[in-house]
């Protein structure tokens, strides 16, 4: 993520919330008001970030979330196991749509 963070800066976190924060402001945010992100081979990414990865991410989230969030995460996990609902790929697209001041081009 050097394109957003700068070489070797190390600010960029290790979760989707940190990625969303990076796109929408604060340290690591691109200087330009608008920019273009070209997601090359996005169909390959869609495959890698499909339901198996979504199940893995939700299992990880369920093990660490606050008890009040467990029912919602459990419901999402059940749906992902049945290959319903949003995938990790969809989550990333939504983050770009909701938080990025620039343009995401799927290529």
Structural descriptors:
single chain, 107 residues, mainly alpha, two-stranded parallel ribbon, 6 helices, 2 strands, 54% helix, globular
Describe what you observe in this structure.
It is globular and about 40 Å long. The chain is mostly helical and 107 residues long. The model has no long low-confidence stretch (mean pLDDT 84). Helix 2 runs parallel beside helix 6 (88-99) and helix 4 packs antiparallel against helix 5 (70-81). The chain has six helices and two strands. The chain is 54% helix and 7% strand. It has a two-stranded parallel sheet. It has helices spanning 2-5, 16-24, 42-48, 51-64, 70-81, 88-99, and strands at 36-39, 103-106.
Topology:
Layout: H1 2-5, H2 16-24, E1 36-39, H3 42-48, H4 51-64, H5 70-81, H6 88-99, E2 103-106
Parallel strand pairs: 1-2
Helix pairs in contact: 2-6, 4-5
């Amino acid at each position: 993520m050097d394109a957003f963070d700068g070489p070797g800066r190390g600010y960029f976190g290790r979760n989707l919330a940190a990625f969303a924060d990076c796109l929408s402001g604060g340290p690591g945010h691109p200087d330009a008001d608008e920019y273009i992100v070209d997601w090359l081979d996005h169909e390959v990414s869609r495959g890698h970030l499909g339901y198996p990865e979504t199940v893995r991410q939700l299992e990880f989230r369920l093990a660490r979330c606050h008890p009040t969030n467990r029912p919602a995460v459990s419901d999402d996990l059940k749906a992902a196991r049945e290959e319903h609902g949003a995938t990790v790929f969809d989550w990333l697209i939504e983050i770009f749509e909701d938080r990025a001041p620039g343009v995401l081009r799927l290529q």
